[in-house]
Amino acid sequence: MEKPNGIHYIELSNNCIRFDAASQLTNVFFDDSNKQIIAVRSGGATGVVVKGPVEDTVISFCMNDRGGAIRSIKFSPDNQILAVQRKENAVEFVCFQGEQPMLQDIITHQVKTLIYGFVWVHNRELALISSTGLEIFQILPEKRQVRSVKALSISIMWFAWCCDANVALLCTTEGNSLIPVIVKQKVITKLPKVDLGNPTREVLESRVTLGRVYGVLAVLILEANSSTGLMEVEVHLLNGPGLAPRKCHVLRLGIPSTLARFAINTVDNLIVVHHQATATSLLFDIALSGEVIHEITYHAPITPGRSIKPFGLKLPSLSPDGQILQCELYSTHWVLFQPNIVIDAKLGCMWYLNLSIEPLCNLISDRIRLTEFLLQRCSGKQMLLKVVQQLIDEQYKGTLLPVLETIFDKINKIYASWVQLELQNQTAQPSNVKTTITKHAAPPIVLIEQSDMAQILQTIAERPYAESVLMLYLQSLNKYNISAQEELSKMIISELIRNRSFDTLRRLVSYSMLQESKSVACFLLAHSDVNSAISQVAIDMLGKIQAHEIIIEVMLGQGKVIDALRLAKNSMGLEKVPARKFLEAAHKTQDDLIFHSVYRFFQMRNLRMYETLAFPKAEQCTEFIQHYNKTFPADSTIKMQTN
Question: What is the pTM of this model?
């Protein structure tokens, strides 16, 4: 395994939470549900300080030392009841008024079995896990009572808890089974057991981690491979029928079992496996492809193991510069909690583990795999856009088009699914359907829209390979039935015109691959002086959107008065065709035959509508009547008339 060096993709949060370090007088506890660090001095007699989940959240109080060392201590979600376990078979409940305990009203609940632990499932409900089962109790402070509301009888050896999913994993004495149980207010739901493969297989509590990966609860079991002797992590996802756990993935650590001292976190849907002996952390992404054997995907680390980024802790000092203590990474005093919490009890620090994306981009050379990785990361969007920018940059000169094509497809596949969801949400319900509050689907982790890509693609405008890259992106959009937007359409049109690719432009409009709008058509018309074919392409587009009034204006401007008149008659109706506009356009052509045809057209219109050849005064056609009589004297027998 590679030794740590200057590149670090995992780091500790800058603002750590400081607390009283563990000592002979101070015991430190962590409540993973509330994310609170609880420092208890002298059994509480000289003070209890509760911090978290952020540094400035502090509760301080004192309570009596009632004999016996504190084994566990946790606040209810609203911080109004403190549960304290001092004995193996009893839990005390201390009610609070504000931030101070009412020590005269302590409620003690004692059972006849060995208590392994407890978790709060509601402000006034607590689940007690003991050797004989799991039981939910309701605490009634006003009556100083603890009442059982639900119970599950089962012999238990140990348990693990996932607060994010409200699931307890129970290791039973009956066949050493691992059974997930959903524990909520007044509800206990037993799920199918984890299939360990071998009924005689024993699983140690220290080898099991519960976490959420891509929204699914995962049971992570650290085991040595019987054939290779190398350590692996089995990933059992609770996504089968009835939330049945399924062994879906295996993470190959590549470390001998003789060096097995590991801890696991989940950060940004990545499984992070820390190894103390080598002081490195391995990253695994179960969304990436791997070797599939018997429907189980085997994953190697995304990159060789690297150390967590060194952390300097600023110590109190009279010096303005202060003193910096370099913290020992992977210390034996470290305790890790889910999903991404690191606590150094001796140092008195609590950190959140964070993922540093940019170093990973330098370590993952396969750009397609890097794209798949970044599309699943919360902070992956800007880095993915940066990767695309690099691929289309001048230094590549468009030689990586096959790679770009695959990347565009992966981006647009997600984009298309989101566009489809948005369209479904915008679909109006029938008036006879009662309006209900609909839960809109959450957007993808990384969503790259056309507007994002347009900013990148603009940087390669007028480069020799710009047309190829733009066409590649357009084809990818078309593959997923995504319509090109105005900005992208205009960029493509500009490149095609610059390269005189008029046939390609005509085909794109013919197949409706560019946005069909008045704005885009007018953009085409603005470039019609380059080639006459562009004007016809614009007219074709305007015809698709039935923008006849613009087509008529274009035709009149081109001197195609007869064609414009024919279109106006068909689209507007005979009575709405303005005579003066067309007579003026015909006069400007200086073609007497065209003027004669147009003039006679309107005379016939007048005859049909007004039963006379004369033009109404409102149409203001006097000058054209005079021009007609002067130009065609043979027709002067028809006396000019006006109403």
Answer: 0.83
First to last CA, the chain: 101
d(CA 62, CA 404): 63
CB-CB neighbours of 642 under 10 Å? 11
Phi, psi (deg, nearest 5) at residue 337: -130, 160
Beta-carbon contacts of residue 472 (< 8 Å; ≥ 6 apart): 401, 404, 405, 408
Give the Cα separation of 343 and 351 in Å (integer). 6
Beta strands in 277-333 (DSSP E): 280-284, 291-293, 296-299, 312-315, 323-326
Which residues lie closer than 8 Å to 371 by C-beta, 6 or more apart?
A: 384, 387, 406, 407, 410, 411
Question: Residue 489: beta bridge partners?
Answer: none
Q: Which CA distances in Å does 278 have to 136, 237, 292, 406? A: 43, 29, 29, 37
Q: Are the C-beta atoms of residues 10 and 330 closer than 8 Å to each other?
A: no
Cβ-proximal residues to 511 (8 Å cutoff; 6+ apart), any chain: none
Token output for 606: 């007048």
| Cβ-based burial of 67 (10 A; exposed 0-12, middle 13-18, buried ≥19) | exposed
- Distance of alpha carbon 216 from alpha carbon 245, whole angstroms: 10
- Two structure tokens written together for 586: 């015909």
Q: Which residues pair with residue 249 across a beta bridge? A: 235, 297
CA distance 259 to 279: 12
Query: Which H or E run contains 526?
Result: helix 518-526
CB contact at 8 A, 250 and 299: yes
Number of Cβ atoms within 10 Å of the Cβ of 7: 16
Segment 460-504, tens digit of pLDDT: 988 888 999 999 999 999 999 999 999 999 999 999 999 999 999
Half-sphere exposure of 10 (CA within 13 A, CB side): 31
The first and second tokens of residue 422, run together, are: 């948005």
Residue 161, pLDDT score: 95
Enumerate residues 6+ apart whose C-beta is below 8 A from 197. Answer: 247
